[in-house]
Amino acid sequence: MNKEQIQNEIMNGQATLGIEFGSTRIKAVLVATDFSTIAVGSHEWENKLENGVWTYSLEDIWSGVQDAYRDMADQVNIEYGTVIRNLSSIGFAAMMHGYMAFDKGGNLLVPFRTWRNAITGQAASQLTELFDFNIPQRWSIAHLFQAILNQEAHVKDIDFMTTLAGYVHWQVTGEKVLGVGDASGVFPIDSNTVDYDEGMLNKFNELKSVQQYHWTLRDILPTVKSAGEEAGRLTDEGAKLLDPSGLLVGGAVAAAPEGDAGTGMVATNSVKQRTANVSAGTSAFAMIVLEKALSQAHEDIDMVTTPDGSAVAMVHANNSSSEINAWARMFKQFAQAIGVELSANDLYGALFRSVLDARPDAGGLLSYGYHSGENITGVNEGRPLFVRTPNAEFNLPNLMRMHLYSAFGAVKIGLDILKQEDVVMDSVVAQGGIFNTPVVGQKILAAVMDAPVTLMTNAGEGGPWGMAILSQYVTMREAGESLADFLENRVFANQDSTTMAPDPVDVAGFEEFMVRYKDGIAIEKAAIDAISDEPVVATVEEDEIHVGELEAARV
């Protein structure tokens, strides 16, 4: 599509907007009817640890999305000499799970509790036993039940609870809904009905501790929508929440809000059975669309769904690229100290390319990039840790390979469980900034997965582009056209991609690293006992490097 055609689409209100709230970035992507990206806007933000809870304020949510929208709209004005007044469709996505509870007046009852919190262990364990279905600590139902077990006063006043994506969608459309993919991180989904599991809802409501309240669970949960269903329209008031300038008006068709897992599947064309995708950013997760049910519930495997309701086994690690970014900041400071200014691309490129000269097992080095707790390894707090023996080969290539291996260490433990379940993957598509340097990230992930890994040219856009595509599916789908067919035959019909097979030497080296990784978890736990955590406020200088950071999956 040429510049004039794109300009006409913008002026005629044919463009689509996808917005995703990631852990460190809010990103707005405007998309044309040929599925190409018109403009991208972003806003950097950080969660805060307040009273022992990782959270974002409502003020940060709205100022952030307005800044991302303004950044995108400014690019449109500069590049195409026009402004955005109307949109064809719109969709919102965000990091999954967490807990936002509201009273009848729409007031937030307690600060937003994000997926990053590992404070619901008792609730998650009891619900897993009750349902015979793994309920991770991140899930919204675990947060709600933990609040009940803690006898928190606000629970009696709950009228509605939702996720971050669900909250934003509600405010701009008036609709209390969730896409089934995001809903599958709130409460277990029955893929046959594409709705909350009725039997499990009843079991929860029958708990004596729950019956003291005036509500039943379905009363306070969002309505579940599947991909392709209209989920309301952008109101004029909602348009002003996104664009305080008043240029944007309401009317755009809204797709159901989704989680970053679902948008990642769409962005990587991974919604068919036996397809898989891996996203790596602040957290990392691998998702495989199942062709058959697992033989049993596994504590380290989340059962979620695609945006159209198919069962997905997800291995989710709370920590991935944060420690790589921390070391990159230090190397940048060293470069500045000797009078050298490096762009983020040059800095990360040099560090990542050094990995190609490393020993396959990272030279005996070991690290845990735990900036928060990690459920898979049973660690309840974050203590970034680097350890080596005196005889280990401590050099830059081995250091960086160690960090990349560690970024996928917890994920690998979950993948081994799925391997024992004979789960089959025909393809693995990766996305996230960790793959921006050619070859390196793809080569490492191929070793982790022990399977060929494909990168697509749109991988850098990630979830918000995927959310825009989901909203286009609502308005552009043909009768009877499945989401998988829409993606395969229309969106990705001419997609450029590169595929890399695993190197047996890398596979063996990573397995050797994983032996150290598993054996050393006791060191990480000892560090938590020995060193208290005193939060330090990040400086502006520290935040500046985020523009080039590895964040793209949870952007």
From TrEMBL:
The answer on whether this UniProt entry bears the keyword Cell division reads no
User: Out of the domains of life, which is the source?
Assistant: Bacteria
> Tell me, what is one Gene Ontology molecular-function annotation carried by this entry?
D-xylulokinase activity
Give the E.C. number(s): 2.7.1.17
- Signal peptide location in the record? none
Domain Carbohydrate kinase FGGY N-terminal, chain residue ranges per copy:
16-242
**Sorted UniProt keywords:** Kinase, Transferase
Protein family (similarity comment): Belongs to the FGGY kinase family.
Protein's name in the database:
XylB_1 protein
Source organism of this protein record: Weissella cibaria
